[in-house]
Every structure is written in structure tokens, then in C-alpha cells.
Design brief:
The structure is a single chain. This protein is of the alpha/beta class. The protein has 13 helices and twelve strands. Strand 8, helix 8 and strand 9 form a beta-alpha-beta unit. The longest helix is centred in the middle third of the chain and has 12 residues. The chain is globular, with a radius of gyration of 19 Å. The relative contact order is 0.14. The structure holds 2'-monophosphoadenosine-5'-diphosphate (ATR). The site of 2'-monophosphoadenosine-5'-diphosphate (ATR) has 15 residues, from helix 7.
Amino acid sequence: MSKAPRACVIGWPVEHSRSPAIHGYWLRQYGIDGAYEKEAVRPEDLAAFLSDLPANGYVGANVTLPHKEAALHAARSADVAAKAIGAANTLWLDANGSLQASNTDAYGFMTNLDEGAPKWRETCGVAMVLGAGGAARAILHGLIEAGVPRILLTNRTVAKAETLARDFGAPIEVIPWETKDSALSACGLLVNTTSLGMTGQPPLDIMVGALPAAAVVTDIVYVPLETPLLAAARARRLTAVDGLGMLLHQAVPGFDRWFGVRPEVTPALRDHVVTTLGAA
Ligand code: ATR
């Protein structure tokens, strides 16, 4: 077997994953003799696949839907972020061959926000987060760790938002989905974690004009790159941060662990991944 390190993304389905485009680009850019594969693994086969990871020549993996929670439970140990979020997206084998788990989605989101809106911390005050799925969990963890003192959380299905508020505690206040517009005037940061605005989905119906002039708007949807929400924010001269950077930055820690180089998120990487989005 080749000694070149190999990693993979595990999903079901996995075909849509952009991770091979990102890691493949970095492997070429840094001239690393390694590989990054796609592995379509059925939920019932995940535990066996992870046990066989070293036997299959893998040093680690990314994990995507629907395996993120199960991957956390399969790992021998997990970092603070993965435990708080309740899901893992990055796995690696330590020196003893035992499986370690991390969740780098909060890191990816925060790094993208810091890069796209460097002053967001000065103007944030209250943040509003739309949605209560897996992505919202990661983003709430990131915002709370960053010290955001008050987060208004709203979701079509209120019970899911209430579960998150219970899990994460004090800074989160759940507001009804129908009342979100009236709370916007107090918010310095608006985050869309729902699928609304994605190609093929209805647009997000929200009064961006009610936000303060210094507000920052960010969307985790990146197909299209410029969602109707971001376009509306830019039309009002608000700072708008697209979701692609979160995807790119969340990949950095995994590549570093598996291949021993801390890779850079550059405009050229971004352009490369954008060219793959047309096939979405
Ligand atoms: P992810 O793990 O990527 O966050 P998810 O768990 O499917 O994905 O969550 C999708 C989010 O988009 C949820 O908050 C969902 O709201 P519900 O919890 O009520 O399902 C939200 N969403 C999807 N379609 C929506 C719609 N038409 N209107 C409002 N919210 C919607």
C-alpha cells in the first residue's frame, strides 16, 4: 500500500460534496503526495466503515449528512466544539490509532465573518439567527464563544428553536417566526441558516430595510453565491457576507491534521470552487 496519506468525505449521498474540490486544490497547490476521496456510506454501515478507516489506508475524514451525529458518537474522544454542537464534521486518527472528532463549522463560520466583516464585533450587539437545524447549532456555538451577549433565535418550527435555547442557554432568546421583522431594528447581525434563498427553494421573506445602517448580513446558502437576502442587504449598503467562505474555512483544520500543512483560503481557491458550483 502507498504511504501517501489519504483522507475522504463520508456521506449518503456524497456526490454533491464540494470537499474534494477544496482538498484536491490544496493537495496540488502544496505539491503533497496525498489523496482525498468521496465515500458513499449507508447509515447502517458507518460504524464498520469508521472502524476500518486505518485498514482502508485513511488518516482521517470529513463527515457530511446524515452522519455528523453518529460520527461524534463513534469517536473515542471529541473536542469542545463537537461536543457543544452535538455533531462532528472532521475525524482523524491520533498517534495510537484512536479516532478523534472535531466540528470545524463554527470555526469556518466565524473566520468567514471576521474576514468579510472585520468590524462586526463592534456593531453587533444583538444578533438574529434564522433557522434551527444543524448549521444553526454550529453558528450559535460560534457566536456564544465570541461573546455575543444576546441572540434572537427564530425558526418556522418553534419547538426546534426552543430545544436549541435549552441546550445553549442564556444568550439565546426565542422569538416567533412571524415577529422577526419587528425585532430587526435592534440587531447588528443577521444570519440566515435556513435553506430559504437556495436555488430551487423559496426566497427568504424578511424586511432587510428594518436593520440598522451598520448591520452585517450573512447567509450560509452559497448556491447561488449572491442570495436574494444578500442582494437586498447590499442594495441598502449593509455589509453582506456570502456563505462560501464558511465552507472553505471549515476545511482548513482537517487538511492541516491529515496532511501536515495549514492551507490558505485564497481568492484562487474560491474561484476554483465557484467553477464547481454550476453543477449544483
Ligand atoms: P441544516 O442542518 O443545514 O441546518 P436542516 O436541519 O434541514 O439543515 O434545517 C433547515 C432549516 O431551514 C430549518 O430551520 C428549517 O425550518 P424547520 O425547522 O421549521 O423545518 C428551515 N426551513 C426550510 N424550509 C423552510 C421554509 N419554507 N420556511 C421557513 N423555514 C424553512
